[in-house]
Structure formats: structure tokens, C-alpha cells
Amino acid sequence: KRAFMGFDIDEIICELNNAHDTSDDKLKFLLERNGSDDRLFAAADRVRREIYGIDVYIRGLIEFTNYCKNNCLYCGLRRDNKNLRRYRLSRSEILCCCDEGYSLGFRTFVLQGGEDMAFSDDDICGIVSDITGKYPDCAVTLSIGERSRESYEAYFRAGARRYLLRHETADISHYGKLHPPEMSLENRKRCLYDLSDIGYRTGSGFMVGSPYQTTENLISDLRFLQQLKPAMIGIGPFIAHCDTPFAGQKNGSLTLTLRLISILRLMFPYALIPSTTALGTIHPEGREMGLKAGANVVMPNLSPVGVRKLYSLYDNKICTGEESAQCRGCLENRVSSAGYRIVTDIGDAKKPAER
Ligand code: 5AD
Ligand code: SF4
Ligand code: FES
Q1: Closest residue (by CA) to atom 8 of ligand 2?
Q2: What's the rounded Cα separation, in Å, for the pair 246 and 257?
Q3: Phi, psi for 334 (deg, rounded to 5)
Q4: Centroid of chain to Cα 279
Q5: Is 278 close to ligand 1, i.e. is its CB under 6 Å away?
Q6: What is the Cα–Cα distance from 269 to 204, expressed in whole angstroms?
Q7: Which secondary structure element, helix H or strand E, spans residue 233, and what is its range?
Q8: What's the whole-number mean pLDDT along residues 217-236?
Q9: Could you say which DSSP state residue 20 is in?
Q10: What is the pTM for the complete model shown?
Q11: Is 289 left (phi over 0), alpha (psi -120 to 50) or beta?
């Protein structure tokens, strides 16, 4: 049971969950060790069941534009990718996705897109208020990248209450290897702190196994999340895209991603943790495994089937073929086969009881 360096897995698991201040050395040991993660998964699942039972929250993902002004080295939507046909959904097309989603039981809509300046603040506000006006019992989540504080305030006034923006990596020099010089970790963090200051429930997160990532970088990610305290934490393996500078790079590993999901569940018992599409892309049962490792959210695609292939963040993305019109039904089976159940619920993060 005891391995090199004298660390005991059960002891680390216990510390992660209670004290919340496991040392960097112990995290490094946990992230790098060879051997079974069964005890780690079981501990994370226990914590998840104590707080969320077997409930899995669903978010309807609407990928409304694949235009992007940025040039992140890892992403297929980067502006220099000239091999990609670009699209934008109209306001009525977006609302149509919500209509379908609502009847399928979705009570959260995530509007995700590249950083597409053709959508002005007024456009975004109009779309948000369209949806909240028609579906007052639903939450609108935005995931449209870095904008000014004033823009974020305007979207909030229009009714958006949640915002997803992964920090991608909390290490400044690693950030520089994944992004062009005009992007900065500083501005990314500024956005995240502005968002939570305004009152958004924020989601952040990072890629696992992105090029040049070290264990120390991952520990920085965990430490940054301890400071930010987001409501949602989304992670997924890096997957190379053939039309980016990272074509041919190694994909992130399933094992390490699952291990990190469990660590996140133990460190952040109340967090919303999605079992991501990227996880389902590197392994056919990746999302089921993510749930068993501590994740409690799935985000099926609600985008029109005709554009799904065009939202190509990485190669071989699942849920883009003709079979994908009913991700909702497909996921229902997957979630129940893993031993959990999808609920029709707005799905806010639970909070610790007042003591
Ligand atoms: N592999 C995995 N995830 C990626 N993302 C972008 N490109 C890739 C890739 N090649 C993730 C980023 C972004 C989210 C929308 O998709 O983390 O925040
Ligand atoms: Fe644009 Fe986001 Fe892709 Fe970067 S990760 S190129 S900001 S869509
Ligand atoms: Fe999309 Fe199965 S969840 S096709």
C-alpha cells in the first residue's frame, strides 16, 4: 500500500476531501503514480453521491458560431484555419434549438461560440433575453470568450447568469506556448474575476495533456481553481486537430483525465463537473467513466445536425454524424448504464449547509 516517497493513497484521498490543502508533493505523487485508481474513483463517487445522489444534470449545448478572431494553437476554430467552412446561426435558428431542447427536458442552454465579433453586445443581449423571455424556468449560460467587463455586465442585465471560460492553463509560460503573443493569462484571469464579481456562476477548467504540459502545471491549475472557486470545472483531454500547429502532437490520456476528475471531486465536493465530449472522443465509454470518477454533468449537443461537423475544435469529435440528432436519448442510456440518472432540472450547484 505504501509506495515510494512514503505516501499513502488513502491518506492523500482523505486529506484532499477534508483539509483541502494536500501538499504539492502529494499531488505530484498522485498524478504521476502507476497503479490502480479504483480507490480514488470510489472515494470521489462516494462524495458525489453524498451531495448529488445519482443525479446527472444536462446542459443543452448550442454551438452558434464557428468564427473566431483568435489563433489558439490547439484549436481547429483558430482564425488561420482556412480549411474550415464557417457558419453562424441566426437568432431564430438559435431559438429553434432551444424549443427542441426544452421539449427534450433541457432547462439550461449553453450558447457557445468562437470569439466572433459579428455578434455585437446588443445581438448577444437580444438572444439571451429572447430565451429567458420565452423560457423563464431556464438558465442561459454564455461561453463566448474574453470580452470587456462592460460587455459582461450587459449580458448579465439581459438575463445571463452563468459563464463558461476555461483558463486552459494557469502557468504563464505554458499559457504562452499554447497561445499567440496577443493573448494573455492575465486577461483571461481578469475576465474570470470580473465575471464572478458581476455575479455570474462561472465555470473554468483546463485541458489535460496539452503540449508541453507538466505535472507542475496541473498542480498550478488546481491551485488556481482553489482561488477562483468556480461553480463548474470542465476538463477534457487535449486532442490534436489536423489543421493546427499542434497536428501530430500526442493526445491527452484517459487515465490522467479521469484521475483529475476524481481529484477535483474530492477537492471541490460541491462543484459541477461535466463529463466532456472530448473524454467521449478519446474512448467510446469515456463519458461513462468520467461519471463514475466523480463527474455529475453532461452537455449534449443541441446544435443543428448540419453544422455540427463544422464546430471542429479537435479531430474525430463525437456527436457530429447523422446518428447524433438524438444525443439526449443516447446519453440517457449511457448515464443509466453507468448507474446514474439524468434529471430535468435547472441544475444549480448545491451549497454546503449552514453550520
Ligand atoms: N483538444 C481538446 N480541447 C480543446 N479545446 C479547444 N481545442 C481543443 C483541443 N484541440 C477546448 C478548450 C476550450 C473548449 C471550448 O474546448 O479548452 O476552452
Ligand atoms: Fe477561438 Fe476558443 Fe478556439 Fe481559441 S479555443 S481559437 S478562442 S474558439
Ligand atoms: Fe451524441 Fe451519443 S451522445 S450521439
Answers
A1: 114
A2: 19
A3: -65, -45
A4: 11
A5: yes
A6: 16
A7: strand 232-237
A8: 98
A9: S
A10: 0.97
A11: alpha
